[in-house]
Amino acid sequence: MIKKYPIRVTINGVVYERAIEARRLLVDFIRDDLGLTGTHIGCELGECGSCTVIFNGRMIKSCLMFAIEADGAEIMTIEGLARDGELHPIQKAFMEAHALQCGFCTPGMILVTYDLLKRIPKPTEKQIRKNLSGNICRCGGYEAIIKAVKKAAK
Amino acid sequence: MKWIGKSPIRKEDLRLVTGHGQYAGDVRIPGMLHAVVLRSSHAHARLKKLDVSRAKEMPGVVEVLVGEDVRGTLYQPLFFEGTTQKKDERLCLAVGKVLYVGEPIAVVVAEDRYVGEDALEEIKVEYEPLSAVVDVDAALKPDAPKLHEEWGDNIGTTFHMKGGDVETAFKEAHIVVSATMKMHRHFASPLEGRVVVADYNPVTEELVMWDATQGPYRTWYLVARVLGIPENKLRVITKDVGGSFGVKNRQMPETFLIPYLSRKLGRPVKWVEDRREHFLGSHHGRELKVEAEMAAKKDGTILGLRGKIYGDQGAQVQTLESSIAAISSVGPYKIPAVDFEGLGIVTNKVPTGAYRALGEQTGCWIRECLMDKVATKIGIDPAAIRMKNFIQPDELPYQTPLPIVTYHGGNYPEAFQKGLNAFDYKGWREKQARLRDEGRYIGIGISCYLEITGWGPSKLVWALGIKSGGYASARVVVRMEGQVTVYSSVTVMGQGAETAMAQICAHELGVDYEDVSVIFGDYPLCPPDGYQLGASRGVAVGGTAVLMAARKIIDKVKKIAAHYLRVSEENLEYKDGKAVVRGYEERFMTLQQAARAAYEAKDLPEGMEPGLEAMHTFDPLALDWTFGAQFAAVEVDPETFKTKVLDFLISHDCGVVINPAIVDGQLNGAITQCIGAAFSEELVYDENGQLLTTNFTDYGLPRAGDIPEKFTLVSMETPTALNPLGARGVGESGTNGGYAVLAAAVKDALSPLEYDISEFPLTPSKLYERVKSRLSKSAGCL
């Protein structure tokens, strides 16, 4: 019987108390244990960014963290961005700029944008390209995403 | 209401931006087990022994299967079979021999994936390694190790395509240019890998599957066939797919193993491949070697094109990219004689399959590269030689020397000229001269192409070796209160098919886009698709089916309206969602009123069936070809050999555009894929057949910083006559010309060194290696 450890995590304002194995990845915990499947897995090595979540106010790649490290943390996933049925301006900007195609990179891109705009409210094109470079989009060619970020920054 | 030509917010978007996409990997079912696949770690070896006893005993492990357990029961149906193709057993788990690193050899089912992966490590495999062949030259040597001893060689299939008098063309030519060109191995690599989930209910004997595939209908009938499940007891669901670009276009071992396991165990089973598995277990693309030559007159008129194409098929012949390269080698030009032979050669690598416009980029590159050589030889501008050889609009429809290559519509010279002007080609050449004087390596490239779209007439698709038809269908249902449901055979994988079908239906029926829902990816509920989504056929074929079904609805509405309004049908016209009496605009019946009448059936015309729905299956009349001209300006850094794309323009004509923003996105994405393919993506094998690039650190997908500084799209819309929508396909077309244009631009940039570009990729290290010998001549650096 593999040992399990109790953790207490707040995700999108909801407190979860669970017992998990030490080796369980945070992204697997979020997706499989809690059913929050908006956070995606593209590589498990922190290279693609589709697992991006906001962790205690900063973006992290949740495939590079064990769930046990999240004990006591406050996390926001893509499901927590819209409030009371109102889409976040970044979500609206992505839709209006036609910045998504298959949508797999989208939650990560939106949360990376959220993190960027908190730190740099009016980023330059160069800053946008640089800050998005940890997230891969295979469908869209990035142009529309860059437009969306600029739109959201307004 | 006009919905064609508009870019409304996509139907797909709301669920995707809120994290409520319905990807197969998101499915969670109580009691669900997880499957993990053991893959060969040798490229070529006999499988002497497979001991799974310890794995089976591990707590949490429910089942372990090896090849012998399912041989004779499960197999991979062929996706493609060339006319000269040699036979080999397409097992779901290897028996006796493994042919590539990554080949499935066992599957473990466990309570969770972590335990399953632990169990993989407990499986003892005894291999007897054999020598591997990892390139076509080695594979063709008479003493080469053979993947299938009974074949006598490593040639899986061959083809020969020709037309016109090639012998005379080359004999009488003033100029003959030639090249040996290599397109490297790389692949689609969508962000979502492959996923199969199966849930067998032992009480009802019904099986439900979720498959991340381009072809859920195809999964449905093939799983029914292979597993012997009655068709009405099987349901296959494919909602959102996280990109595919061809790699999810065929049913693979896992497609059959997972439902088999679920049925055997009476429990839901989920399989989600990880990124390393995607590199080793899906399929690769593009790898071709070409020896080609072009004959021309001294004024630049092309007389002929011929060559030999060697396709590296990996361990199984899954497609024939080389034949598509031959088909697309003609392009938008009057080339009177064409002759291409090809070989599909097996090697000990991952099988090659489809990746966005497979073969077309090589066909384009062969021709465009050789045309540039002719132009250089006779001293004319690359743009001029294209203008000289274009098929003129009044020469369409145009039959090329290859019987299946017939072009139907468009205006190639005009689209080209538009592109030339919008790119400011002249301005760039002037800028190039100035910057060259400053010692900068600036290059400009041009490529033109015709992309195969609207795939394809069923008979032709079969004749080309693909084991499926090419039709698409739609069932349009108008509900009592006027809401419309379109059951479509399209699949949704990023290209906005759900949205496009809704737009077409809304436009034709004259209703609000918001009032149209599209249901897709659920079989047998949805209507059948002869092929699947891909090959740039979503709008051209799937959309036409929607249009035709909508027109059948309108016919019925007019009949109902004629009856209620007491006029004859000829006096009615349907516009803006109403059947209106000509000349008496105040007398009309709306679609919604007709629907209400149809379902209430209070007073329908004699003999009319109640209800308001219509089905249409559209089998394309012919392949359609989308023209594109691409222009690129690049700069190669003399110290790092990194190429920056400064300016990129596509001038294209895909006929009527349904949603401009979607088309823009498709082309943008395609060009970014070309940039990745050219400058940072390469699947590298060592001499033992070990894949050295199995993650995104080693395999450089392009990122936000790699895209062109400037990207422009110029659009022409010459409607096609091949379908009533007037639309050609466009999903793949960016990739068609992208490789040729970047190769031409880099070659032009390095022209002071007179270095020929005949091999991809053009990564900094590759360029440096090949250019090194010239460096000594110019004292140390570029």
Quote the average pLDDT of chain B: 96
Quaternary arrangement of the chains shown? heterodimer
Using the CA coordinates, give the radius of gyration of chain B: 28 Å
Low-pLDDT segments, ≥5 res of chain A: none
Mean pLDDT of chain A: 97
What is the total tally of β strands of chain A? Answer: 5
SSE-based structural type of chain A: alpha+beta
Number of helices of chain A: 5
What is the 3D form of chain B? globular
Name the overall outline of chain A.
elongated
- Identify the strand order in the major beta sheet of chain B: 3-5-1-12-9-10-11-22
Number of helices of chain B: 21
Topology readout:
The complex is a heterodimer of chains A (154) and B (782).
Chain A: E1 4-11, E2 14-21, H1 26-33, E3 52-55, E4 58-61, E5 74-76, H2 89-96, H3 106-119, H4 125-132, H5 143-153
Parallel strand pairs in A: 1-5
Antiparallel strand pairs in A: 1-2, 3-4, 3-5
Helix pairs in contact in A: 2-5
Chain B: H1 13-17, E1 33-39, E2 45-51, H2 53-57, E3 61-66, H3 67-70, E4 97-98, E5 104-110, H4 113-122, E6 124-129, H5 136-140, E7 155-163, H6 166-172, E8 175-183, E9 195-201, E10 206-211, H7 216-227, E11 234-237, H8 253-265, E12 269-272, H9 275-281, E13 288-296, E14 302-312, H10 321-327, E15 338-345, H11 360-378, H12 382-389, E16 398-399, E17 406-407, H13 412-423, H14 425-437, E18 441-453, H15 458-463, E19 472-478, E20 484-488, H16 497-509, E21 516-519, E22 522-523, H17 538-565, E23 572-575, E24 578-581, E25 584-590, H18 591-600, E26 613-618, E27 624-636, E28 643-653, H19 660-679, E29 711-716, H20 733-749, H21 764-775
Parallel strand pairs in B: 1-12, 10-11, 14-15, 20-21, 28-29
Antiparallel strand pairs in B: 1-5, 2-4, 2-6, 3-5, 7-15, 8-13, 9-10, 9-12, 11-22, 13-14, 16-17, 18-27, 19-20, 19-26, 23-24, 24-25, 27-28
